[in-house]
């Protein structure tokens, strides 16, 4: 091979070919050229060409230079030829990718249509026999329809029967003679085919008579076909009527004995369906025609209509109050609606004798009754029964509503419930609301003197403004729900952009009024000494607070957290004055307890962390942990806090040790037999299990122990206990019974806890000791205490049996640690994994491999897309060239024709000119 010289690549190629002996003068071929010598020379020539192509362009070959050359070592991949690789890839794509793209829309599949190929019930021998039979039939049959040498006659057919054998089918023309076979005779053909008009008419039939005969025969055939169809229908009807008997045979009903009489055949299904259909049609004939209804209205339109109705009702009330004449304009459609739906427009008697539509005027009066109604309950086990009772009461109310439209106030009194569960009604019953209800700063008038309630109210921005509205219109407690509903209806968020802010402020007003009503009820006292707390009004307030809190949760959380923070500051201030001072307000009163209960009803208490529920739980736990018991009122408040904690944690079952410690202290204080001159068993148990009991055995709680045997009264009045009006043995017995019930409830709540044994063992010991010492003097209380102790002891025994002690994890013996240094036998490679964790190293390796394969796949897809784009462009160019060639051919042909035409025209002109000269 020649040396590299200057010049272009073409000049270098020519020089290389001439030096290699490929071009130029060639030696003459001898006789031995075609033997081994010729093959050797061809091989050498191919090698020289390869070497020449490799040396032609230095950029066609890439060499990875190594730092250290080792003799005798050959490393793969040191040299590469990207041009050859690219051309090979393009050729591979041209052979594989292009056919796939060209046939991507084809959807064809091979279907084997041989006999028995897809029949799993046929054996191989049966398949072969069937195929052989079919092949022999094909061979013996006519091979071609147009083969004239075939002896088999081929003619026309009708319904699979040859027309040539009509003489053998007598049923084709049953009404004709055998000689005619239904064909038209020669005379009819002559007359019907427009022939023989010149012949005289010698009495033969004309064309009209012939056509009449043909029409008559056609009608006869049509009649016979219709008759056959009617016969088939009659046979089908008979089969339908006998379907019942066929079913009885199919179901194989047991035959009756010989002594029994056969039953009458059942009525056919068709007759039953026919009778049911006739009855349904008769009922529809007497029904009233349906009326067209208006389209469904949006929430904004409904709110606007409700507010408009309230404004119109208020305007009518003002006109009636001033003695003006009120004209009621109602069209016929409204009257019909009143007749059809009397429950929607329930009329009640007002103070002045007129009637007003409460459901239409109050707006949300009907819709708010059926929604969320939280109650001040304590127990969850009886909630389902209470819900069923409430539903029954609602249904009874609706029935009374349909029967009599003038009993609205009575129904409201019947529907009002104290809202207490069965457990709370047994222990914490409050005075009914209908005994005496306190006023809003003044004495309320009697029932007959109550003025008509307005339909529109302004949205108050403070609690004082709300009290002024109630005092101005002398609103009774039973009417408070109506007032709040009308305020919410008139200031719906959809009516004005400022209404959401007004309702958020009104939510704070309702919370303040809840505390106000509870405090008013705590101050008011009945004749028997019990407070007059109206829990029915409180339940109505909780209903509206819950709905507004659901609509505006952020603002509602701010209101509740502010109240809880104020209660915590009051507790800290009372503890600073002295926890044993009677003037220190360390325990929550009735208003605060109502607020705590409302917060537990409105907000979810099962969340691990909540902006309102978490501070609520912390505050109640702080009350139980730091406040000291000084009286029975403090003890009742502590028990109610324990009840709230148990109710709030019923879903999450989060441990609240403050409640268990408070129950232990209250039980130890109430049991009189545990107070001895020596060491108290309650104190000893508390020191052993680490229970803080500062009030057990103290001088300020000595007077709180049970002194007489008494049967616990059910239900217990919470407001009475908090008022301090009763301080007798019956109250102490009731508190002891409530404490025992709460212990059972907490035991059932925490029975799945790992620390159940350590939590309830001291309570069980305390109750067992107290029951043993109460048997002689107080048998009734001793029976209650012993029953609770037996239940706790049984649960503790089951917990001990199910408990499994902790064990060390079983593992193989650890090998002796090696202190020999670890040397890296291989050279340092940053790409090599050095993770000691085998699984993690394998995961990293797979991840790297996946990343590499993904990048490679993306690279190949990009190359495929580029190749397809080039192929499409090339196809487009070829199509354009072919189209241009075709257009050029057409254009040239037209041009030639035009040229010939012009030449012809010129020749004609010349000839004409010559002819004119002559």
TrEMBL record:
It holds the Pfam family Nop14. Residues 168-182, 326-340, 378-418 have a biased composition (Acidic residues). Keywords: Nucleus, Ribosome biogenesis, rRNA processing. The keyword rRNA processing applies. Residues 1-42, 70-89, 140-187, 220-453, 893-918 are annotated as: Disordered. It is found in: Nucleus, Nucleolus. Residues 909-918 have a biased composition (Basic residues). Signal peptide: none annotated. Residues 220-238, 264-325, 341-357, 419-432, 893-908 have a biased composition (Basic and acidic residues). Involved in nucleolar processing of pre-18S ribosomal RNA. Has a role in the nuclear export of 40S pre-ribosomal subunit to the cytoplasm. This is Nucleolar complex protein 14.
């Amino acid at each position: 091979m020649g040396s590299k010289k200057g010049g272009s690549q073409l000049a270098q190629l020519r020089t290389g070919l001439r030096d290699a002996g490929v071009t130029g003068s060639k030696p003459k071929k001898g006789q031995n050229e075609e033997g081994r010598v010729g093959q050797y020379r061809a091989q050498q020539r191919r090698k020289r060409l390869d070497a020449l192509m490799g040396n032609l362009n230095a950029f066609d070959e890439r060499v990875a230079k190594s730092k250290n050359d080792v003799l005798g070592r050959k490393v793969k991949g040191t040299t590469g030829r990207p041009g050859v690789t690219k051309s090979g890839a393009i050729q591979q794509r041209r052979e594989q990718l292009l056919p796939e793209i060209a046939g991507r829309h084809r959807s064809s599949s091979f279907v084997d249509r041989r006999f028995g190929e897809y029949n799993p019930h046929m054996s191989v021998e049966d398949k072969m026999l069937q195929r052989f039979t079919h092949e022999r039939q094909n061979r013996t049959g006519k091979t071609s329809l147009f083969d004239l040498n075939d002896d088999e006659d081929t003619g026309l057919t009708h319904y699979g029967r040859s027309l040539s054998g009509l003489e053998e089918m007598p049923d084709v023309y049953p009404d004709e003679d055998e000689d005619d076979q239904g064909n038209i005779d020669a005379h009819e053909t002559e007359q019907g085919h427009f022939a023989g008009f010149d012949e005289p008419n010698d009495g033969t039939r004309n064309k009209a008579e012939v056509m009449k005969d043909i029409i008559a025969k056609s009608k006869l055939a049509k009649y016979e076909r219709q008759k056959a169809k009617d016969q088939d229908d009659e046979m089908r009807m008979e089969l339908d009527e006998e379907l019942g008997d066929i079913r009885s045979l199919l179901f194989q009903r047991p035959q009756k004995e010989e002594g029994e009489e056969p039953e009458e055949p059942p009525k056919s299904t068709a007759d039953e369906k026919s009778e049911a259909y006739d009855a349904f049609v008769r009922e529809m004939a007497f029904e009233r025609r349906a009326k067209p209804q208006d389209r469904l209205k949006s929430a904004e339109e409904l709110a606007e209509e409700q507010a408009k109705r309230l404004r119109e009702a208020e305007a009518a009330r003002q006109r009636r109050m001033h003695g003006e004449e009120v004209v009621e304009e109602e069209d016929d459609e409204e009257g019909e609606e009143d007749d059809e739906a009397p429950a929607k427009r329930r009329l009640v008697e007002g103070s002045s004798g007129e009637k007003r539509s409460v459901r239409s005027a109050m707006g949300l009066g009907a819709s708010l009754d059926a929604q969320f109604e939280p109650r001040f309950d304590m127990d969850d086990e009886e909630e389902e029964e209470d819900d069923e009772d409430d539903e029954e009461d609602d249904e009874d109310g609706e029935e009374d509503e349909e029967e009599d439209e003038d009993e609205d106030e009575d129904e409201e009194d019947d529907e009002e419930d104290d809202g207490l569960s069965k457990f709370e009604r047994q222990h914490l019953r409050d005075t009914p609301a209908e005994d005496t209800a306190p006023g809003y700063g003044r004495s309320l008038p009697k029932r007959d003197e109550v003025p008509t309630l307005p339909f529109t109210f302004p949205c108050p921005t403070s609690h004082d403004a709300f009290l002024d509205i109630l005092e101005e219109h002398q609103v009774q407690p039973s009417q408070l729900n109506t007032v709040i509903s009308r305020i919410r209806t008139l200031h719906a968020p959809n009516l004005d952009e400022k209404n959401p802010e007004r309702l958020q402020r009104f939510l704070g007003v309702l919370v303040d009024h809840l505390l106000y009503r509870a405090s008013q009820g705590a101050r008011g006292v009945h004749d028997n000494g019990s407070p007059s707390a109206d829990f029915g009004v409180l339940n109505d307030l909780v209903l509206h607070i819950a709905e507004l809190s659901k609509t505006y949760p952020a603002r509602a959380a701010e209101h509740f957290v502010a109240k809880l923070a104020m209660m915590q500051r009051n507790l800290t201030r009372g503890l600073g004055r002295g926890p044993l001072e009677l003037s220190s307000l360390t325990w929550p009163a009735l208003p605060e307890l109502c607020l705590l209960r409302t917060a537990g009803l409105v907000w979810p208490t099962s969340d691990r962390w909540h902006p309102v529920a978490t501070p609520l739980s912390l505050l109640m736990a702080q009350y139980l942990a730091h406040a000291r018991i000084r009286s029975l009122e403090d003890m009742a408040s502590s028990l109610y806090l324990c009840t709230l904690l148990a109710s709030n944690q019923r879903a999450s079952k989060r441990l609240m040790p403050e409640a268990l410690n408070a129950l232990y202290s209250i039980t130890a204080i109430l049991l009189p037999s545990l107070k001895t001159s020596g060491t108290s068993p309650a104190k000893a148990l508390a020191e052993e299990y680490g229970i803080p009991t500062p009030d057990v055995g103290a001088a300020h709680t000595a007077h709180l122990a049970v002194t007489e045997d008494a049967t616990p009264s059910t239900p217990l009045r919470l407001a009475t206990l908090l008022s301090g009006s009763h301080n007798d043995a019956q109250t102490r017995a009731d508190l002891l019974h409530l404490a025992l019930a709460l212990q059972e409830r907490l035991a059932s709540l925490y029975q799945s806890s790992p620390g159940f044994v350590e939590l309830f063992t001291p309570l069980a010991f305390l109750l067992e000791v107290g029951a043993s010492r109460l048997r002689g003097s107080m048998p009734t209380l001793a029976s209650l205490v012993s029953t609770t102790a037996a239940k706790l002891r049984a649960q503790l025994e089951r917990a001990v049996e199910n408990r499994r002690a902790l064990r060390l994890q079983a593992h193989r013996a650890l090998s002796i640690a090696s202190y020999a240094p670890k040397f890296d036998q291989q050279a340092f490679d940053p790409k090599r994994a050095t993770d000691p964790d085998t699984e993690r190293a394998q995961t990293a390796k797979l991840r790297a491999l996946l990343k590499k394969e993904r990048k490679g796949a993306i690279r190949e897809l990009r190359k495929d897309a580029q190749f397809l784009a080039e192929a499409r462009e090339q196809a487009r160019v070829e199509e354009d060239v072919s189209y241009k060639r075709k257009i050029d051919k057409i254009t040239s042909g037209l041009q030639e024709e035009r040229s010939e035409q012009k030449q012809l025209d010129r020749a004609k002109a010349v000839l004409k000119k010559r002819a004119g000269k002559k």
